[in-house]
Amino acid sequence: xxxxxxxxxxxxxxxxxxxxxxxxxxxxxxxxxxxxxxxxxxxxxxxxxxxxxxxxxxxxxxxxxxxxxxxxxxxxxxxxxxxxxxxxxxxxxxxxxxxxxxxxxxxxxxxxxxxxxxxxxxxxxxxxxxxxxxxxxxxxxxxxxxxxxxxxxxxxxxxxxxxxxxxxxxxxxxxxxxxxxxxxxxxxxxxxxxxxxxxxxxxxxxxxxxxxxxxxxxxxxxxxxxxxxxxxxxxxxxxxxxxxxxxxxxxxxxxxxxxxxxxxxxxxxxxxxxxxxxxxxxxxxxxxxxxxxxxxxxxxxxxxxxxxxxxxxxxxxxxxxxxxxxxxxxxxxxxxxxxxxxxxxxxxxxxxxxxxxxxx
Length: 360
Ligand SMILES: NC(=O)c1ccc[n+]([C@@H]2O[C@H](COP(=O)([O-])OP(=O)(O)OC[C@H]3O[C@@H](n4cnc5c(N)ncnc54)[C@H](O)[C@@H]3O)[C@@H](O)[C@H]2O)c1
Ligand SMILES: [Zn+2]
Ligand SMILES: [Zn+2]
Fold this sequence. Notes:
The chain has two domains: 7-166 and 324-356, Alpha-Beta Complex (Quinone Oxidoreductase, Chain A, domain 1), CATH 3.90.180.10; 167-300, NAD(P)-binding Rossmann-like Domain (Rossmann fold, 3-Layer(aba) Sandwich), CATH 3.40.50.720. 25% of the residues lie in helices and 26% in strands. The protein has helices spanning 5-8, 51-57, 107-110, 158-161, 167-177, 194-205, 220-225, 238-243, 262-267, 289-292, 306-318, 333-341, 353-356; strands spanning 11-18, 25-32, 39-49, 74-81, 93-96, 99-101, 121-122, 141-145, 150-151, 186-190, 209-214, 231-234, 248-253, 268-276, 297-300, 325-328, 348-352. The longest helix has 13 residues, at 306-318. Strands 3, 4, 5, 8, 9, 16 and 17 form a seven-stranded mixed beta sheet that branches. The protein has a six-stranded parallel beta sheet with strand order 12-11-10-13-14-15. By secondary structure, the chain is of the alpha/beta class. Nicotinamide-adenine-dinucleotide (NAD) is lined by residues 50-52, 55, 166, 170, 191-196, 215, 254-257, 259, 277-279, 301-303, 340, 343. One of its GO terms (biological process) is lignin biosynthetic process.
């Protein structure tokens, strides 16, 4: 006989969930599985708010299931480990990002690219191996197979480290793979939000020259003086764009709104690479001619494998890279979502889950 939900998931949990595509979050009681032999259970301390959470809350990608508990920039402290767990012990500071499962038998998994596994299981709004729905980090605790758990280095502030679990690896991985994050490279970053601002920090720390490309000059001073960018380009200024034509080796594009790719392709040198990281709802217009002249490439990238995620966190700790955050309480989350929609955050909201999530 099939097991009941209580048998599969006997441990009570609570968090905040959206019930429909209004995306409004409210308290939600549910349950999680008992700690399996390879599982790590941890108390959630902080969880970042990625723009993907907003896309999914509002079902903008058409595959949201409700109730939906978001959150995939999760940091916490280990409270229980399964009998076969090797890498973690009670009290360790840990993180979980976008993935909590994969097939472990495909070519991608064999090459530490679980992020490209066709059976990768997202941290929320996914279906786990046992057939149950996954719930994310806007909740009191998580239970995750140790393969998908990251060690957070001792010297890192846990709140500002949380966004690295998604925004960090999403920008670090393409900088490495497309060989843009190294001395001698000139990297453009389009969209100075959660992804963009850590992208600037990683590209700089990896040795590249960095130009922020933005529609308005508002963020110029901060991008250069605070985030460490070398220069700032206002994409609505034709003179500035003209002067910057053919100067960049690569561009990380983090803009989810409809936007033109042609001007960005013009900024690239021959063999330059335009890397799409955002997920616009509609296909973007990609003209072919500008790709032919100069053998330019358009590529994409999504998060990174677990091995590279640990490498990214260790690199960030060594180079003092964290996100610039605004810490909020759980009951502020709906206002935070409205502000995120209006691009009114510098540069990532992080929920202080442990101190502000109250049991229903
Ligand atoms: N590839 C991946 O693995 C991955 C991982 C995380 C997020 N994402 C996606 O990347 C995108 C960005 O995520 P984020 O968390 O950085 O979002 P964000 O809201 O923090 O930042 C987005 C930035 O885009 C800019 N922007 C918005 N509308 C614009 C417009 N019309 N023209 C120009 N710029 C505009 C804003 O200034 C903002 O700074 C989202 O679509 C998200 O789902 C992808
Ligand atoms: Zn994300
Ligand atoms: Zn796989």
